[in-house]
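Usage

Read records sequentially. Each one opens with the input sequence:
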Amino acid sequence: MKLPTIFILILASSAECFAQKQIDCSSLAIQDSLFNVYSNRARSFGYDHPGWDQSYDSLIAICPNIAEAYQEKGLPHLFNGNLAKVFEYNDKAVELDPKRWTAYRGYLHCIYAKNYDKAIVDFEKALTLTPNGFIQDHTFWFFLALCNMELGNYVKAESFLQKDIAQQKRGEGKNDLHFNSLLYFGIVYYLMNEYDQAEKWLRDCLQLYEQHPMANYYLAMTMKITGNTQQKLYFERARQYALDGYRMNEPNSQNLTFPKQVHMEEMEKQL
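and closes with the structure output:
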């Protein structure tokens, strides 16, 4: 149960004046409530203000076992590109709460650091800790597929995408599949030279997200190889949608390069 905010404010103020042993840092209720107070304080400053770091340092001085405090300390370094610091803090978060933070560290290894071997280790561990879990709107299988695709293990990537799709279809199966799962299924088949399958999955992606630049581009590339005369139309669509500002619609995708992502220069070469 959450403690009243006013009580926690008093508690936090007292904690900064008296010894740490006065607070029961093993209590999840105390941890959650203290975190809420100090994270609100940090957000009042913003990522790029020294007050962000100072707020979490104060929290850690009170309770050094709050995993999320370390993860939050890593965020400014993530946006500044200091990945060494990012992993220093996230390693500590994983140490304190592996069930919650192992998959997130795997995501950082996969998407930010491009260290696919380390990402695979984390996601395999995460599957044992939280089966059927999700991170950043995707199953763990999705990121395992991306890692194996980048390592050239296309058959494994195909298998993991099948598991990704199956997990998304669990239950009543009424929700749409994530369009980027369909995109990468198409890309994997394109890389495997299975062009009929590639075209099918890329068209399925465009059914959900017509303006997807990468799906249009890879469909055009598939058509170029198979001799489909519509290739120019899809190259033009890919370029125009990218110019119009359409992206992968992944978290922070405007600042990141995703696996096999195509940039404007490559699109221009095809026209």
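Summary fields computed downstream for this record:
- Confidence is low (pLDDT under 50) at residues 1-10.
- The two ends are 60 Å apart (CA to CA).
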